[in-house]
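Quick check before the chapter quiz. The format below is the same one you will see on the exam, so make sure you can read both the input and the output lines.
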Amino acid sequence: MSAPAAPEEPEPCRTCQEFDLEEAVARSERDGSRETDARVLRRRHVEAAHAGVSPPHPRQ
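Here is the expected output.
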């Protein structure tokens, strides 16, 4: 018997990655408002483009 194949990782979403980067930059600059904006925009994008199923977030 062979081991079952590992499930394929989904292709990363460039838009999600851009929001994650924006959040990280804002956090490094201690800009809480911009950090929150990036999280909200990412969440809205996920709801619209990914049917509410979020791709992995780097902080998780």
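If your answer matched, good. The radius of gyration is 15 Å.
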